[in-house]
Amino acid sequence: MSALALEEVQRADPRDMRVAVLRQVVPQTPDTSTYWFALRRAADRAAFRFQPGQFNMLYVFGQGEVPISISSDPAHTGRLGHTIRSTGRVTEVFRSMRKGDEIGLRGPFGRPWPVGRATGGDLLIVAGGLGLAPVKSAINEAMRSREAFRRIVVLVGARGPEHMLFRRELEAWMHLMRHRGIEMGLTVDVGDDAWPYNVGVVTTLFDGAQLDPVATTAFVCGPETMMRFAAEDLVERGLAPDRLWVSLERNMQCAVRLCGHCQLGPKFVCADGPVFRWNEVAGLLEVAEL
Ligand SMILES: Cc1cc2nc3c(=O)[nH]c(=O)nc-3n(C[C@H](O)[C@H](O)[C@H](O)COP(=O)(O)OP(=O)(O)OC[C@H]3O[C@@H](n4cnc5c(N)ncnc54)[C@H](O)[C@@H]3O)c2cc1C
C-alpha cells in the first residue's frame, strides 16, 4: 500500500531503541544542519517505515533524548535525515558529531500529515523557518503522486536568505516543479541585494498563489505565531478549518502518551499530534498557561 493511501498510523514500540550511525552532515544555516543517519543493523534498515510529519526520539548516549522530525523522503529509509537546530543541552552535542558516531533511535512516532486527504483537490503547504523540516517529507510524498492532486502549491518563508533551509534543494525544485506543474514561492522577512524572490512574511505570498479555498487542503508548519497568522488568514479566505493542519512542538519525553510532558489541555502532542487539525487546537493555543 502506498504511504499516500495509508491513513493508519504505524506506531513504533517505545522500548525498541535501535543504534543509528551518522553518515553525513549537511549544514543548512548557521545553527542548523541535516544529520543523515543509517540504522546500524540491516534488518532494522529494511523494516523501518515512516510517514510524512512523523518524528524519532534521538538519544545522545549519556546526554539525553530529543524529539526530531524526519526531514527526508519516506520512500528512502536506508538513510534518515534529521534537520536539527542547536538550541540547548542535547541538540548542541550534534554539532560536534562526526561521521561514524552512533546514537540511539526510537520511532517513528506521532500522527502524520494526512497527504491522502488532499487528493482530488489542491494541496497547499506553507512553511516558516525550521518548520520546513517536518513538512518536507510531505512535499516529497506529494511530488511523487503529482497526478493525484489538482494543484500543489508550496510557500516557504524564512527570517533572511541565510536562514532558509534546503535553499539549494528548493531552488532546484523550483525549476523541476515548473515542468511538473508544482508551484513554489519563496520569501524572506528581510532580503539582501542577492535575494531574487519575494520579501515579506509568508502570508504575503497568498494573493499571488491564487488559492481556491473551497478545493484546498493546507499544511502549515513553523513558529506558533506564524502558524496562527497563516491559519487565520486562510480561514478568512474561506478555507474550512477542518481542512487546515498544523504541526505543534512541546517538550516531550516518552513519545507515547505516558509521561504528560507534552500535554496541551486534553491532547498529548506526542500521540494525538504533532499534526493536528487547526480546529482541534486553535482554542488551546490561545491559553497561555497550556
Ligand atoms: C514532535 C517534535 C518535532 C521536532 N522536530 C524538530 C526538528 O525537526 N528539528 C529541530 O531542531 N527541533 C525539533 N524539535 C524541537 C527539539 O526537540 C528541541 O529543540 C529539543 O528537544 C531541545 O532539547 P535540548 O536538550 O537541546 O535543549 P534544552 O536545553 O532542553 O532546551 C533549550 C530551550 O529549548 C526549549 N525546548 C526544549 N524542548 C523543546 C521542544 N520540544 N519544543 C520547543 N522548545 C523546546 C527549552 O524550554 C529551552 O528554552 C521538535 C520537537 C517536537 C516536539
Order of SSEs, N→C? EEHEEEHEEHEHEEEHEEEEH
Mean pLDDT across all residues, rounded? 90
How many individual β-strands?
15
Structural class: alpha/beta
Note poorly predicted spans: 1-7
Helix content: 10-25%
Terminal-residue CA separation: 38 Å
Side-by-side strand order of the widest sheet: 10-9-8-7-11-12-15
Counted by DSSP, the helix tally is: 6
Integer-rounded radius of gyration: 18 Å
> What fraction of residues sit in β-strands?
25-35%
The main pleated sheet reads as:
7 strands, mixed
Explain the overall architecture:
21% of the residues lie in helices and 30% in strands. By secondary structure, the protein is α/β, with parallel strands linked by helices. The strands form 3 sheets. The protein has a 7-stranded mixed β-sheet, with helices on both faces. A 6-stranded antiparallel β-sheet has the order 4-3-6-1-2-5. β3 and β4 (64-69) form a beta hairpin. It is globular and about 50 Å long. The structure holds flavin-adenine dinucleotide (FAD). Residues 55, 64, 66-69, 83-85, 87-92, 130, 133-134, 249-252, 274 line the site of flavin-adenine dinucleotide.
